[in-house]
């Protein structure tokens, strides 16, 4: 061999400084790793799991010894201010405004659950029709989320949120004036409320991601997701208390529209649009440009951490959606069976403190669970890079038996039921902020709104869009098979809610699957943002002349399903077990 290096015909995507074997046409050549010239033009963000190099990225910024390639820079406070153009105080104020709106959204969503027995009496409907109220809203929210996800990756996010929240406030106010014989109109207005929620939920987390990085981002996301359980609990409390004060459940739906007007004003006056992905790029990295919608979908579909974590979050949505609508009604029926509360009769207002108590439990368990999950994950992350999905799995698997016990004990002791609900909801709430953090670090910035949108679609389509209706439908079917009584109403809802414990266990299994892929997907996204993904390298010489062991049949089978198309390292059929740690896809 001469002193000149032979570059492989197929470019390969590996980390600089790593050792790599490339099979040539005639023989194997081993040469020191070299880098090409840095890119000078903006990159079009093609599929970050593509087989070839990223278009428009002919070289790698930096040098072989640059630590940026191994450990991405975490900007300090001054660095963040320089990159985003916003002071730390202004960034924190923006997060506070986003938290207020998130709290308001969930407060409105669960105000209906707080007055559900009164709505059933007013419109004279059964459990399955009551479940449709939440199902129609979630279905609309789910359908519109991809639209706002696409727009949020390409247009000004501040104005998209302002328009959606203003429309949501108007429709919510209109839903409080629907007459008794127009139940279908209530369903229509609750469906239109999904416009505002879709415009906000898909966009707000990406704003936080563009303001903070690393542990700062995790902390801010935990603050942001505190608003979900707190807002849900306030919805129960506000709904039941406003109804008691006004003597009419319609007034419970007239509280949040006024607060929504305040939210629009705060968005206009406080929030500024930060540059997308700037806090995660190196100073010499080319800027990120969006790609087509189909390219985004293909990249997300080939991201196993995103898919599996979304399935796990779907189980969380199924359980929380079912409990949110049916837990107060179930607790009321339990008290009726125990003789502690008189039953709701047609024409009378339902008198029960269960909505208030369940709202307080939701607030407390949400704050405790979100904070506990983020802190445990942050500490475990120092020694285990798979800590995030493992904490989520522990939360779901741990909540399942406590939810089952809360249902089983309801006929004997309402106090024991509340205790088990408290523990189960605390464990469930550990997932909220961690799942959002997983999405933000395994997906590149120009696809995050789209990823948020499709996580919403998946989690609601298989989760809380149908779970309230499904629980109500099972309850009605069981109740019709037994003689009419208050006990049969209680038992029917009790047995149908036991489905939640089983779904929670399935979600825990999905998060365990996420732990298998999380390291590779996170590293791939980091390299892509820094302009170091899909670049041609010449491999270093081997450390030993020992022939590598052939890959196992199991590994080749995994590659067949996870790696369609040619091997990005140029191995083809000559893939060996020694190459597995270097594979950018596994």
From TrEMBL:
Membrane topology: Multi-pass membrane protein
CDD domains the record matches: MFS_spinster_like (cd17328)
Start and end residues of each Major facilitator superfamily (MFS) profile domain: 94-522
Highest taxon listed in the record's lineage: Eukaryota
One annotated Gene Ontology cellular component of this protein: lysosomal membrane
Record's subcellular location: Lysosome membrane
Keyword flag Iron: no
UniProt keyword Membrane present: yes
Name of the protein described by the UniProt record: Protein spinster homolog 1
Organism: Ailuropoda melanoleuca
Gene from which this protein is expressed: SPNS1
């Amino acid at each position: 061999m001469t002193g000149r290096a032979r570059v492989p015909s197929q470019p390969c995507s590996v980390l600089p400084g790593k050792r790599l074997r490339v099979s040539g046409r005639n023989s194997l050549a081993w040469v020191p790793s070299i880098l090409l010239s840095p890119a000078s033009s903006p990159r079009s963000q093609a599929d970050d799991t593509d087989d070839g190099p990223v278009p428009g990225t002919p070289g790698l910024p930096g040098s072989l010894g640059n630590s940026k390639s191994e450990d991405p820079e975490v900007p300090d406070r001054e660095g963040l201010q320089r990159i985003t153009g916003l002071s730390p105080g202004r960034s924190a104020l923006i997060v506070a405004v986003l938290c207020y709106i998130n709290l308001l959204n969930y407060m409105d969503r669960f105000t209906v659950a707080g007055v559900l027995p009164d709505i059933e009496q007013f419109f004279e409907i059964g459990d399955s029709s009551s479940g449709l109220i939440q199902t129609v809203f979630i279905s609309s929210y789910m359908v519109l989320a991809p639209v706002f996800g696409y727009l949020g990756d390409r247009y000004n996010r501040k104005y998209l949120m302002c328009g959606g929240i203003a429309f949501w406030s108007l429709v919510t106010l209109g839903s409080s004036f629907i007459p008794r014989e127009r139940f279908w109109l209530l369903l229509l207005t609750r469906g239109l409320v999904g416009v505002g929620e879709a415009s906000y939920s898909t966009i707000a987390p990406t704003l936080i991601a563009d303001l903070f990085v690393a542990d700062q981002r995790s902390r801010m996301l935990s603050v942001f997701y505190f608003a979900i359980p707190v807002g849900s609990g306030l919805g129960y409390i506000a709904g039941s208390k406003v109804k008691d004060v006004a003597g009419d459940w319609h007034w419970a739906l007239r509280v949040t529209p006024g607060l929504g007007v305040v939210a629009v004003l705060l968005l206009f006056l406080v929030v500024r649009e930060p540059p997308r992905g700037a806090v995660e790029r190196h100073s010499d990295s080319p800027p990120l440009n969006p790609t087509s919608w189909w390219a985004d979908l293909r990249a997300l579909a080939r991201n196993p951490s995103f898919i599996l974590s979304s399935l796990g979050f779907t189980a969380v949505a199924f359980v929380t959606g079912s409990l949110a609508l049916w837990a107060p009604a179930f607790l009321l029926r339990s008290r009726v069976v125990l003789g502690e509360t008189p039953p709701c009769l047609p024409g009378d207002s339902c008198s029960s403190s269960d909505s208030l108590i369940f709202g307080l439990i939701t607030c407390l368990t949400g704050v405790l669970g979100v904070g506990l999950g983020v802190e445990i994950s942050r500490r475990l992350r120092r020694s285990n890079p798979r800590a995030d999905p493992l904490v989520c799995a522990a939360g779901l698997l741990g909540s399942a038996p406590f939810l089952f016990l809360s249902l089983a004990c309801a006929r004997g002791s309402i106090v024991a039921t509340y205790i088990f609900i408290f523990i189960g909801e605390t464990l469930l709430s550990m997932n909220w902020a961690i799942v959002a953090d997983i999405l933000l670090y395994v997906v590149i910035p120009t696809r995050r709104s789209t990823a948020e949108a499709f996580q919403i679609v998946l989690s609601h389509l298989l989760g809380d869009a149908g779970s309230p209706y499904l629980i109500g439908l099972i309850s009605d079917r069981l109740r019709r098979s037994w003689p009419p009584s208050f006990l049969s109403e209680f038992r029917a809802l009790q047995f149908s809610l036991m489905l939640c414990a089983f779904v929670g266990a399935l979600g825990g299994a999905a998060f365990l699957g996420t732990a298998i892929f999380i390291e590779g997907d996170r590293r791939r996204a980091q390299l892509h943002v820094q302009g170091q993904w899909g670049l041609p390298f010449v491999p270093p010489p081997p450390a030993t002349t020992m022939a590598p062991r052939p890959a196992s049949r199991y590994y080749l089978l995994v590659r067949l399903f996870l790696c369609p198309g040619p091997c990005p390292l140029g191995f083809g059929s000559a893939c060996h077990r020694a190459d597995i740690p270097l594979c950018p896809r596994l």
